[in-house]
């Protein structure tokens, strides 16, 4: 998944989540919630992509390595 290739529903989902988190982020409040499956899947893919990029390997290579292992 490439963050630049998100569809409009994924973008809307992330924007809504950001709006929900914003007051807690600013205030430093503890926050517990239940996340919808779609959001968990999207966040998981974006985090994996970001970590792969930070690892120095292209995200596509990192994904390929995961699929092989």
What do these coordinates show?
Helices cover 70% and strands 0% of the residues. It is built from 3 helices and no strands. The longest helix has 20 residues, at 8-27. The chain starts with 7 loop residues before the first helix and ends with a helix.
List the keywords.
69 residues; elongated; 70% helix
Please give the count of helices: 3
Strand content: under 5%
Percent helix, as a range, is 55-70%
Could you tell me the radius of gyration in angstroms? 14 Å
Low-confidence stretches: none
Span between N and C termini? 19 Å
Mean pLDDT: 81
Helical/strand content category: mainly alpha
Q: Biggest sheet, open or closed, and with what strands and sense?
A: none
Outline? elongated
Quaternary assembly: single chain
- Tally the beta strands: 0
The arrangement of helices and strands along the chain is HHH
Compose a concise summary of this entry:
This protein is an all-alpha fold. It has three helices and no strands.
What topology emerges from the helices and strands here?
Elements: H1 8-27, H2 37-54, H3 59-68
């Amino acid at each position: 998944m490439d963050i630049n290739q998100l569809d409009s529903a994924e973008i809307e989902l992330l924007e809504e989540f950001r709006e929900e988190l914003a007051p807690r982020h600013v205030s430093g409040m503890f926050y517990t919630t239940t996340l919808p499956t779609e959001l968990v899947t999207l966040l998981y893919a974006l985090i994996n992509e970001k970590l792969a990029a930070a690892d120095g390997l292209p995200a596509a290579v990192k994904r390929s390595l995961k699929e092989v292992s």
